[in-house]
Amino acid sequence: MQYYFVLQYRILNRRLNELGVRPFLGYILGLLVFVGLSYYLFYKTSYAAYLYITIALSTISKLSDRERNEFLLATFSSSVYRRIRCLENSILAWPFVLFLLYEGQWRLALLLILCAVALSRVKFDDRLNVTLPTPFYRFPFEFTQGFRKYWFLYLLAYFVGFKAVEVANFNLGVGSLVSVFLLGMLHYSTPEHEYFVWIYSCSARKFLFKKMATAMFYSSMLAVPLLLGLSAYFPDNLLILLGVQCLGYLFLLTMILAKYSAFPGEMSLPQAILLGLGLWFPPLLVVVIPLFYTRSIKRLNAILQ
């Protein structure tokens, strides 16, 4: 069992080195980002504790992938496998637990520990036995693949929007609209195989335009119904909702440019930090977007020309 965790530690260190950052510095930055985002979440909404535990359980559930667990069972004995699963779930849960305790949410902290241990006995299969139909088939693949993977989170976003109307909480409604665009950005977080860019018979500029136009069209299909519903119940805040919608489009386009600025590889840590700064302080996008665009053109020209 000790060998397994040493191996995971070395894999993580290698991953950080590939991103161009020293492991020790990466751990420090990761801790600071985690604490900073946790503070920000609890500062922005009164429902932060429930969102926090949802994020924690969603993260922990990734370790319950069926193929991964079957590999562990084939490698270790049943007793060692159970200890590994319980320990790694607990390790992943503890940062969330400690922050919940810091916020005085000891009941939710205890619930999170119990759920983490319970999830160590569960296996999830990411692959559906049925193909979920989507309205995004015309221009694959990001929204087609992403919607099928995260459809339940879109349902959750709409449920939160419904609750916002029910309890007359405008901020909660804004959060539901923002979450739709964050999910859209998530669809563009992983680079595709180089072949799926090479098959486009166009220039790098036209390729980026097609990608951004598709992203705006499909994100509108998901966000506009929510926007209209919130506007009907919060007409005095229509300008704020339109501003959030426009900012969501801008963030989504920035994410696409950030992705292709590092293509065919993944974003390096400096690029990710630059993207994060732009999202945290939108006026910086005036500098960030042209920079990502220029780098994207250079990267894509090597493949499309």
Report on the architecture of this protein.
The chain folds into 2 domains: 2-119, no CATH class; 142-304, no CATH class. It has 305 residues and is mostly helical. It contains 13 helices and no strands. The N and C termini lie far apart (50 Å).
Radius of gyration: 21 Å
How many domains make up the coordinates? 2
Biggest pleated-sheet summary:
none
β-strand percent reads under 5%
Helix proportion range = over 70%
Low-pLDDT ranges: none
Give the overall form.
Answer: globular
Order of helices and strands: HHHHHHHHHHHHH
Q: Mean pLDDT, as a whole number?
A: 83
Indicate the structural class. Answer: mainly alpha
Primary descriptors:
single chain, 305 residues, mainly alpha, 13 helices
Blueprint (SSEs and pairs):
Layout: H1 2-18, H2 23-44, H3 48-61, H4 66-75, H5 78-102, H6 106-119, H7 142-166, H8 170-186, H9 195-198, H10 204-233, H11 238-261, H12 269-280, H13 285-304
Summarize the entry for a quick read.
77% of the residues lie in helices and 0% in strands. The protein is an all-alpha fold and 305 residues long.
